[in-house]
Every structure is written in C-alpha cells, then in structure tokens.
Amino acid sequence: MERKKVVIGLSGGVDSSVAAYVLKEQGYEVIGLFMKNWHDTTGVLKSDCPWLEDRYDAQAVAMKLDIPFHTVDLSDFYRKRVVDYMFSEYEKGRTPNPDVLCNREIKFDVFLEKALELGADYVATGHYCRKETIEIDGKPVHRLLAGSDGNKDQSYFLCQLSQDQLSKAMFPIGDIVKPEVRRIANELNLVTAHKKDSQGICFVGKVDLPVFLQQKLEAKKGKVFKIDEDCDLFKRDWNQALVENPSDEVLEELSQPYYFHPKYGKKVGEHNGAHFKTIGQRKGLNIGGFPEPLFVIGTNVDFNQVYVGMGQDHPGLFRSVLFIASDEVHWVRPDLALKAGESRRLSLRIRYRQPLQTGVLHCREKGIYLVFDEPQRGITAGQFASWYVDDELIGSGVIA
Hints:
24% of the residues lie in helices and 29% in strands. With 400 residues, it is an alpha/beta fold. α3 (75-91) runs antiparallel to α4.
C-alpha cells in the first residue's frame, strides 16, 4: 500500500520539528517545506532571529530526520493578504490579528497549493490543536478541537479555517504537551530543542508596532484625555438588561463601544497617532504622575484622539456584549450554524490563551451578538471572537 505524503511547514521552531518526527514515526512520507514570508526588517526588534537563521534550523532538522527539504517564497502573498490588511485595519482604528489571517490566507491556502504541487495528500503544522473526522448523513465532517496542552492550545489561531482546509490539515503534536515536545527534541538532539518560541507577528517577529506601521501610516500628534471612572457613560444597567432573551434594541445598544468626547475628561498628555493605539494598551503612553497606571479605553482616529482610564479595573475597559456583522461570521462547522432568531449558550473566547468564557450567542439577520455572563476586559474591534461547544471550536468572526 502506497504511503500517504505529508508536507509539513518547517518553521525552524521546535514544534514543527517534533511534528515532522511524529509524522515520520507514524509511517507517512514526510517532506519539509520552509515558508519565506517576510524579509523586511523595518520596525523589527534586533533581538529577533532573521528568516535566514530560521531556514538554516529548519534545513538542519530535515537533514537530521532524513526528509526532503524545500523552500518557497510566499512574501508577495503575505504582504498583500496579511500585512496590507493590517495597515488598512489600523488606519481605521481597529486592531487586526495577523496570526489568524496567516493561517487562513497563507498556511492553509497558498502554502497548501504549493504542497499539493509537491504531491501532498495532507499539510501539517506544529499547532497545538487536534482534528477529528466524523460522519454525518454519510459525509465526512471535520472537527477542530483544542490541543491537549491547555497552556498552549492554539485552536483560536485556526478559527477561520473551512471544512475544505481542515480536510487536508494534520496537527501531529495536538495531543502532546509542550514539555514532552521539548523532551523529544532534546532526545533527538535537534538544533531547535532549546530554541525560544517565536513572539510577535506571525513570520515578522517581535516589532516596535508604531515604527512598523509607519511604513504606511503617518505619525500624527494628538491629545490624550483621561476619563474618570464615575463618568455617566458607564452607568448602564447591565444586569437588568442582560437576560437570556434580550430585545434587538438592547443588544444593539449594549454592543456599541463607548463613545468618548473631550468634554467627558481632561487632557493629560499627547500621543503620536490614535491609529497606533489599541484598547487595553498600557505601554507606550509615557504619561506619569498618577497613583495607578493609565490604560487606553478608547480612540477616535477621525479626530486623532486617545482616551485613557486609570487602573486596570477602570469600567471603560469592560463590556458585556459584542457584535459581529453577518458578512464577518464564519462557521467552522456549517452544520451547527444558527439561523436568524436562534440563540445558544456556548463557551466564548476573544483572544488567544484567554480562558473560555460562558455566554449566549444570539443570531440575527444583521449578524451575531455575543452576550457574556461576566463583563470582558478589552473587547477590541478588528480582533476575532470564537465560540466552542466543549473543546470543539465551531465558529468565529471579526468584532465590529
């Protein structure tokens, strides 16, 4: 019987290295493919390894495991589909998640196409998540499950994958915990065994965000206003309004971000561009003299204004409802999609590594409202919200 061929994205990190080893041990014909997605160092912090070093490490792993190794340059696709989208979103005052986009647009799209050209039956990555295929009405349905390592579960980053993409996906280390991955790599004497995990933007690295964004977005001085916690804007009666079946009017009202205005606060400093700031941000404000740290609670890119609140428990940082427009809703499991007028209690997440929250998803013609049982800190437009049934991620969408 002919062995199935799997092309694995070898990134030069320990996770994909061990994933390649696991696949080979399972009897697959494994091919390593390194993606060159970014080589511009503008705004990238010098402590980060350049892509050439990552490719060297990936090639060394392939040699050690005795598997073929190839390199593919996808930097044009990455710039157009991920980085240009980032610039566009920040310009609008939103905060995108490039890692989610990279998986949807690059790793499981153009990279998948390159893998298929090499004769691949599947594409594998070193993500900490699992896939399970079941049969419904005689047809295969692919489930995207959380990784066994609760500290490293990366299912959130794959929340935009389709059934077609999942049908070709493999996650060999999804049922292995990180310390065990390190142990295996060390036992195999792989060059990546003790390499630090990558940080920052997928394939770009850790960046000085304002410097990185200034490649296309102009720095503009503006005013920073401090909003006190007793501001009338925060006096919404959440508990009375948030019942299991709230009206459309209540959902619409409570899903709106706070609309701040200079009249609600006082000027406490200046910034270099409202589009460089994001909700919940603390670093980079450079405004002192207060008993507690200041956090960004709102921005207005049209008037180049930034609003801050003092203390990590400031009410301006918290909201209980968010909205996702219908054209931004994605169901990983289309067979579980809600129809307009339906509601369902689910587990919810608005950022990577956030413990799953409980709440209710309300489906309406114009989109989906997520109503959380507990107010959420730092709900940010442009980020992805995802929803789960137990440990299965079944849908996601871009927060409005």
